[in-house]
Amino acid sequence: MAEPDRRTATACFGGLLLVGAVLLVVDGVRLRGAAPGAVLGPEAVPLAVGVLLGVVGAALLVRALRTPPGAAAETSGRSWLRVSALVAVLVAFAFLLGVLGFVVSATGLFVAAALLLGAPHPLRVVGYGWALAALVFLVFDRLIGLSLPAGPWGF
């Protein structure tokens, strides 16, 4: 059996993102129940992420459908190895989240994903990853009031 080309992989991934978007939006709608007078309720983030995920999924599907069947290059074994490593990093993030806390785990996820996808400056990637994870932690924990795992260091 021949390996799928990029067109097929892009279409499958776009479809998967659309399914995830629908699930997020449906679950977000079920979270209604903001405190009286609150600007944002618990449904705000899942709805926003679901809509963005749907836009990306639809764009990938359109791109895949517009690409002529013979124009997409075959994926190599190395590409599948990279995807497998990304999945392993995501699984490690899920397991380490409760132990190391959100900021450290998310930084590791960001750094590993960026390096696997070819980021040119590893030290900058660590700095960007740490800053992004800390910002997300502050927004969720302090502004929205949704607790993220703090880990042994309190962040």
Describe the structure.
With 155 residues, the protein is mostly helical. It has two domains: 1-75; 76-155, no CATH class. It is 71% helix and 0% strand. It has five helices and no strands. The protein is flat, with a radius of gyration of 19 Å. The chain starts with 5 loop residues before the first helix and ends in an 11-residue tail after the last helix. The mean pLDDT is 83.
List keywords for this structure.
155 residues; mainly alpha; 2 domains; 5 helices; 71% helix; transmembrane helix; transmembrane; membrane; DUF1468
**How many helix segments?**
5
What spatial form do the alpha-carbon principal axes imply? flat
Q: What fraction, in percent, of the residue positions are helical?
A: over 70%
What's the overall average pLDDT, rounded?
Answer: 83
**Alpha carbon gap, first and last residue:** 48 Å
Domain count: the total is: 2
Order of helices and strands: HHHHH
